[in-house]
Amino acid sequence: SSGINAEYGEEENKLVYTDIYNSYITKIEGYICNRLKELHPNFQMEMLLNLIKSRKDEVDPELFDTLASFADFMLFKETILNYKSQKDNEMGEFPSLVVTSLACGLPKS
Questions:
Q1: Secondary structure letter of residue 108 according to DSSP
Q2: The pLDDT value given to residue 42
């Protein structure tokens, strides 16, 4: 059973999480870029990235790690899986109850 789950996990990694991750990156980058353009109308992301690279020693390590973590697929996947696991634990047996109720023809809420 764990072998099947491991294989399924790899497929999820390739098929599902990659699409979600790409959408997430696009939204995060768009938000950051748009917000910086509101504050500085002449803002260009390429200039910021070059500035960060050239002054790497001057950037707060926690800030740098936070910004870098937005682009880390494995960290993203781990966060999603932890959230999913937490939600599954909170729900307990509820999902199977919902499926049973819907199978009996009860209205969807």
A1: P
A2: 92
Residue with token string 């993203």: 76
Do residues 64 and 56 make contact, with C-beta atoms less than 8 angstroms apart?
yes
Provide the CA 54 distance to its chain's centre, in angstroms.
28
Q: Which residues contact 48 (CB under 8 A, 6 or more apart)?
A: 36
d(CA 28, CA 70): 8
CA dist., res. 77 & res. 75, Å (int): 5
48-73 pLDDT, tens digit each = 888 888 988 888 888 888 878 888 88
pLDDT over threshold 60, residue 97: no
DSSP string, 40-99: -TT--HHHHHHHHHHTGGGS-HHHHHHHHHTT-HHHHHHHHHHHHHHHHHHHTTHHHHHH
CA–CA dist 104, 82 (Å, integer): 32
The whole-number average pLDDT for the span 63-89 is 83
pLDDT for the residue 14 = 61
